[in-house]
């Protein structure tokens, strides 16, 4: 279930303090934006960044994960993940429950519950594992969770402007004043079919499932990250809400960013066309292919994983 940061009766100041103290614990859509907005340290300079090695003619490498291993306590979860995402690409990650898909997303953004035990992760050539969660967010890493958090006591409009201005500050850009921001915000809200009424409401408080997901995609559109990881964004959405969310993602999609979609279902990929599809099993990416792989999984499921296990026995 969604995690509530503070009680509905908390004051705005108290809510901001609570968000600040829990940035390290929740790195996701609204809390990922909170990492941008409330990170206390400036983002490190990107002047010395380098691109990863290319395997084909494509855009600059935005994410390069190599033999990444991670654990919770004594339990290993990621067991050597390899993934390279270039700007302009959309990668879909599918797999059975418990295969490590969501863990991979949390490790990339720096969730403190997970210990990296091996391998590397580069973001635009920089060692991602050396950055705190708020630094990763300010640099341009965005994660949207399956269950967006609620932040009672913090108005959506204030929250969004604070997050966007912190991101702009990290980019060396001037901050928006309230009037400038409203102009930008109005344009982005139209992309996700959100009413201005949502601006005065507390972040995600009382929102329906579809409204929370649209609010996530609104944050994505405003923050314009270089890397967006969407963890089961399609979960719990009816077809109309799914189309609206997909339209927002497709409006963001472009040559300047990379997208990783984590999903169980082909239906999301009917609206957000992936360039690559990967299958995770037991903490590893065990198969990769084009969009046709998702169709195969929709038809045949993960029987090939059982067949592989039997052949190894």
Describe this structure in words.
The chain has 11 helices and 12 strands. A 6-stranded mixed sheet has the order 6-9-10-3-11-12, sandwiched between helices. Strands 2-1-4-5 form a 4-stranded antiparallel sheet, with helices on one face. It is globular, with a radius of gyration of 19 Å. The protein has 313 residues and is an alpha/beta fold. It holds the Pfam family ABC_tran. It comes from Emiliania huxleyi. One of its GO terms (molecular function) is ATP binding.
What is the fourth-level CATH superfamily? P-loop containing nucleotide triphosphate hydrolases
**Which value, in Å, is the CA radius of gyration?**
19 Å
Task: Report strand %.
Answer: 15-25%
**Order of strands across the widest beta sheet?**
6-9-10-3-11-12
Q: What is the class in the CATH system?
A: Alpha Beta
Number of helices: 11
- In CATH, the topology is named Rossmann fold
* CATH architecture verdict: 3-Layer(aba) Sandwich
User: How is the main sheet built?
Assistant: 6 strands, mixed
How would you classify the helix and strand content by structural class?
A: alpha/beta
Helix percent band:
25-40%
Number of β-strand runs: 12
Mean pLDDT score: 83
Low-confidence stretches: 1-31, 40-57, 309-313
Write down the overall geometry: globular
Distance between the termini: 38 Å
The total tally of domains equals 1
* Order of H and E elements: HHEEEHEEHEEHHEHEHEHEEHH
Task: Briefly summarize what is shown.
Helices cover 38% and strands 23% of the residues. The protein is built from eleven helices and twelve strands. Strands 6-9-10-3-11-12 form a six-stranded mixed beta sheet, sandwiched between helices. The chain has a four-stranded antiparallel beta sheet with strand order 2-1-4-5, covered by helices on one side. A two-stranded antiparallel sheet has the order 7-8.
